[in-house]
Amino acid sequence: MSPCVPVPQIAGVLRGGRWVASRIASTRRQYLAAELLQAARRAGDGRQAARSPTAWGECMSIDEYLAAHAAQFEDKLCELLRIPSVSTDSRHRDDVRRAAQWMHDQFAALGFASEIVDTPGHPIVLAESPRVDGAPRVLVYGHYDVQPPDPLEEWISPPFEPTRRDGNLYARGATDDKGQMLTHVHSAQAWMAVQGSLPVNLKYLIEGEEEIGSPHLAPFVERNRRRLACDCVVISDTCQYAPGQPAITYGLRGIAYFELRLFGPRQDLHSGTFGGAVTNPATALARMLAALVDERGKVTVPGFYDDVRPLSAEEREQFAALHFSDENFRQQLGVDGLTGEEGYSTLERRWARPSLDVNGLWGGYQGEGAKTVLPARAGAKFSFRLVPDQDPEKITQALRALLESLCPPGIRMELQSYHAAPGVVMSLDSPYMAAAVSAIEHAFGRSPVFIREGGSIPVVSTFKQVLNVDTLLLGWGQNDDNTHSPNEKFCLADFHRGIKASARLWHELARAGKG
Asked: Which domains, from first to last, does the chain contain?
């Protein structure tokens, strides 16, 4: 276990079929600033003719640049990871803004036009590369905010002191999404330093509220649709299929998140004196939540499945061809069995079928030892994962009606809806999708598989609805990266492969745009 501190910068260079270690001079960082300044000067007034993207061989020095600056890229990631930009915790509000400023500074150093845009919540960072006439426009989305690190006692190393172990970098936000997002910044740095310009027009939208549902992002995109106009969107905030097997995610489940609060007597009561005569809010809560899913694993909200887009036979065959192992999955999670909706495989349940999960429960005495209390109130937070064509608002209305019918006498209920987004599926028949395949093959040495993802990235549907563009979901993470959990990590080899894939992607997208 070694802390993430500056280390001798050694790059492996492939020569004559063997790896030769070449030490990079300690003054490399000083040279970087000069390189970026020269690149900005070469950009002139910010308008350039598009470079011919026909031969990657002309750009091989970009891969060499990436290898030479690998240690510097890791150091930069560590800088950002040390900022505890926890968006849901008001105590970290200044830290969130500090992370936004850090991102802004990186773009400014590249010679990009960069701006910190305030919102009623946390700021958005917008940046644009120098304009290249006739080149495709690519919007990169990411987020610099992170989840709370709790429970702290389960971390092996401090969550905001990045630590290297076994080829991984451990810290909150390492894979979600600081590490993955930065791959697209470092790749642009390589192009600017080596070529003086990019083959595409890059726009960056980096927000600080993704982990709290992006409450101000959709209105921002709507107001700035002309400024954000693009040919495609690139997001890296997902996972590969397995170690050594890269993937492109073409579908996401949506979400509808709620909090249910139940109120009983005006204060906690003695369970011996009043038990059996007064409705217990905690007991009522347990019964109401249990009634939302039946014994076959199906959600009981009326009309819940009416609009579910069924899996095609072709998709089911594709999922089966991935040879997913329930046994390995079970062992990885440390459980003795798997459950879910009857009639579907584990992958189908996780990727393409709707589900319900309780995310938190509270009520009654939580301290050490026993206290015979009938609690005055109880509550739960829970969420539905939705699939394409399900309407979150329609489900919210049906859920409210069902819970009201289940609420027993002596209990008053409140249902709060937090955030919601529909599920999405992207077309695989796109020149930009083909460009992504080529880029990943170049960096990872094998073709990606196409998968769907059970999680939600609400902005993907926003981009489709407002900007009318599809998104390339290019995940560099792994399923065991402990996202949202203690000991979050990011494989450093995947970090560098992601940067390499991103650099090649700009070249391939330029070719696709000219096709």
From this structure: 2-45+58-252+424-514 (3.40.630.10), 255-308+354-421 (3.30.70.360)
